[in-house]
Amino acid sequence: EAGVAQSPRYKIIEKRQSVAFWCNPISGHATLYWYQQILGQGPKLLIQFQNNGVVDDSQLPKDRFSAERLKGVDSTLKIQPAKLEDSAVYLCASSSLRAGPSRYNEQFFGPGTRLTVL
Amino acid sequence: QKEVEQNSGPLSVPEGAIASLNCTYSDRGSQSFFWYRQYSGKSPELIMFIYSNGDKEDGRFTAQLNKASQYVSLLIRDSQPSDSATYLCAVNTNYGQNFVFGPGTRLSVLP
Fold it and tell me: Disulfide engineering: B36 pairs with which of B44, B51, B101, B107, CB 3.0-4.6 Å?
């Protein structure tokens, strides 16, 4: 079974530029997550999709970040314009459980995209 | 604001010893609790989950949950140098939603 795919693996941009990240989850996984992990910190959930609908985007800085998951499969996360503090690893994860009454939800993480904003 | 706290470490233990990692959380409505391991430069991988009070054992790993004290821990028996990594505690509060990770504890197992 193929894992979660992400691209690019690394990206260096200047502040105020735009950048987009792509994620392809494990086949059949309905739930997709985007996390931001700043060096030395734990992952911070930015947005959670259930199929192509948004379940939770309470911590997404909506003035500059946007995400979509068309057709309920792969997803893109965009930053426009980027700030220095956006330098981080952006992790995509997927899980097979539906958002609903459940006590277990194993997330499988992709390799991440390391973003450096200069 | 839901919070998950962990000692940042580093926690150093000799090879063969028991490593004890601790995590506290602020939301009493939390339902599921996870321990992820993250090697330097790699993505997190799930090693344990627990949702009932008490202990849960899986090989050399034991997760302990005390909801009254809002405390979850991970014990690693017979620690090996390959266990050296950052251990992330994560809490799930709302039926598969609202995942919150702690800052992680860096563990170093000395040969």
Answer: B44
CB A109 within 8 A of CB A2: no
A100 contacts on B by Cβ (under 8 Å):
95-96
Q: With 90 as the cut, is the pLDDT of residue B22 above it? A: yes
Residue A58, judged by CB atoms within 10 A of its CB (0-12, 13-18, 19+), counts as: exposed
pLDDT score at B68: 94
- Quick one: which of B85, B80, B79 has its CA closest to B43? B85
Quote the CA–CA distance of B25 and B69 in Å, as a whole number: 9
Report the candidate in B97, B75, B86, B87 with the shortest Cα–Cα distance to residue B30: B97
- Selected for mutation to probe chain A from B48, B99, B105 (highest A CB count within 10 Å) is B99
Residue A87 — φ and ψ, nearest 5°?
A: -60, 120
CB contact under 8 A, A33 and B104: no
The pLDDT of B17-42, averaged and rounded, is: 94
pLDDT score recorded for residue B96: 62
The C-alpha atoms of residue B47 and residue B14 are separated, in whole angstroms, by 21
